[in-house]
Write a structure and sequence with these properties.
alpha/beta, 2 domains, 14% strand, globular, six-stranded parallel sheet
């Protein structure tokens, strides 16, 4: 069986100019931005391709992209109308892939391209970090902002020497950080000052370039290790870069309407919005999608389940997820309810998709900080409206119950059915939770003391949550019930109260 390349798919040959430089060549960008550019091109709405750069010295994707002429297959799955749907496409949006640690000078030559207009990136949240380093001739800086600064400086110098205008870039980082564009710009400006690149270059960054905040949403699981052979037999070729993901996709870009003209994603039928403020979209995602994960996974994990789709198909945990989202989270969030409900409908379908194999243990990682960012705000919003959200209280109780009889780091957990499991959490949180459980005497009074100890820790939550007496006593009641009656029995009783 032949490896995927232009000889296998000659119809994918393209002479479109490079309009995008992309820092990162991993699964997410290939399954999201690069796929979207392909969709634009297929409709004649963009007519440009991508120069993809390797993020780290240890990257292994660039040689594979070169061997496959930049081609790869997206394998997208989802639930539509209650039925499983799969879309497989060979994507040809990557024109060239390069390694900055070996080809830096050649990469800088692309800064002079007149067709180049956009920068995308996904270097993980840690990638948008200020790293103080020396600027060395002919050697790529270690950090992503450093590489971007040098590339933009090279472009600025070329524009200045040739007296050409229009060499500004539109920079759209896809790292999952609030105000990611603003943060990236501030680091680039700092590096420009560190390296004495001059006031004219700083003016170029401020006046000619645009750094836009974004929010991206699609689960891209990457290469299907266990199913690769089946896919190869179905597709008729070997593809070392097959990229699995969900059909659902969403991107919010903070900018003016002209961004829609520059990048007509919505016109191509893609789920992309451009708005002057993307805060509502970020809040929606954090509270509903991330909040539903964080609120429900501890209980599902204690119940002995392994994946999100198992959690959704179970009659008790599945109904509980639905009730938490629609009955408690949506009413608490101060946003348009139609907007929230439509998004929640999509989230429910995404959670049910069995092809994603989203592990509960991975979602449990750093549960304490996730709970504080994703669940506690919905509880506080509900309390501000005079509502005691009992199922969200149960969610906090299940999180606390994870640490009952827990051992070691990673935290080892006893689960229903004689099962065990483990997850990783912040070291301080582990210490607080374990100490709190050390006083538990298998009665409600001691459960209350345990819960008070946890909720009163201002380092964990930023505030003393135990000051809310009703909230604290309710969480304590459910914590004790989980330990004495079992997590599923307690959930079932809560559902019967509806």
């Amino acid at each position: 069986m032949m490896q995927l390349n232009l000889s296998v798919c000659p119809d994918k040959k393209s002479d479109l100019p490079i309009r995008v430089i992309q820092f990162g060549e991993g699964n997410f960008l290939r399954g999201f931005i690069d796929w979207m550019v392909y969709k634009l091109n297929s409709k004649g709405l963009f007519n440009g391709r991508i120069l993809a750069l390797q993020c780290t010295p240890r990257g292994r994707v660039v040689p594979k992209l070169k061997a496959q002429d930049g081609l790869y297959t997206t394998l997208l799955h989802g639930i539509d109308g209650g039925k499983s749907v799969e879309e497989n496409e060979v994507v040809n949006s990557i024109a060239k892939a390069m390694n900055p640690y070996e080809e830096w000078q050649d990469i800088l030559e692309y800064a002079k391209l007149e067709s180049l207009q956009f920068v995308f990136s996904n270097t993980t949240e840690a990638g948008i970090t200020y790293v103080k380093e020396d600027l060395k001739e002919g050697i790529a800086p270690s950090s992503y902002p450093g590489k971007l600064t040098v590339f933009l400086y090279e472009r600025f110098k070329h524009a200045k020497s040739t007296c050409k205008c229009g060499y500004g870039m539109v920079v759209m980082p896809c790292e999952l950080l609030d105000d990611n564009g603003k943060k990236l710009k501030n680091i680039v400006l700092q590096l420009a000052k560190d390296w004495n690149l001059g006031d004219e270059f700083i003016s170029y960054l401020n006046e000619d370039c645009r750094f836009l905040n974004t929010l991206v949403d699609r689960v891209v699981s990457g290469y299907p290790v266990n199913e690769a052979q089946n896919y190869e037999e179905k597709l008729g070729y070997v593809d070392e870069l097959m990229t699995c993901g969900e059909l659902f996709h969403f991107m919010a870009i903070e900018g003016d309407n002209d961004v829609n003209d520059l990048l007509p994603f919505a016109k191509a039928g893609l789920n992309v919005v451009v708005a002057p403020d993307i805060t509502p979209y970020r809040l929606r995602k954090v509270r509903i999608l991330n909040g539903a994960h964080t609120a429900n996974v501890p209980a599902a994990f204690l119940a002995g389940l392994s994946t999100v789709d198992e959690m959704m198909s179970d009659p008790v945990t599945g109904e509980f997820v639905h009730s938490v989202v629609y009955d408690e989270i949506i009413p608490a969030v101060n946003l348009d309810k139609t907007m929230l409900t439509e998004f929640a409908d999509d989230v429910m379908n995404r959670f049910k998709d069995p092809s994603m194999h989203h592990q509960l243990a991975s979602i449990l990682m750093n549960s304490s900080s996730k709970l504080n960012a994703r669940v506690i705000p919905s509880i506080l919003d509900a309390r501000a409206k005079g509502v005691l959200p009992k199922k969200l209280c149960f969610a906090v109780a299940a999180y606390i119950a994870l640490y009952h009889d827990a051992e070691g780091v990673p935290v080892k957990v006893n689960r229903a059915g004689g099962k065990t499991g483990e997850f990783i959490d912040d070291a301080y949180a582990v210490e607080v939770l374990k100490k709190a459980w050390s006083v538990y005497q298998k009665n409600e009074a001691s459960a209350l003391f345990t819960v008070k100890t946890v909720l009163s820790d201002t380092k964990l939550w930023g505030i003393n949550l135990s000051a809310d007496v009703d909230l604290t006593s309710t969480i304590a009641k459910y914590t004790h019930a989980i330990i004495t009656d079992g997590v599923v029995t307690t959930m079932r009783a809560l559902l019967e109260l509806n």
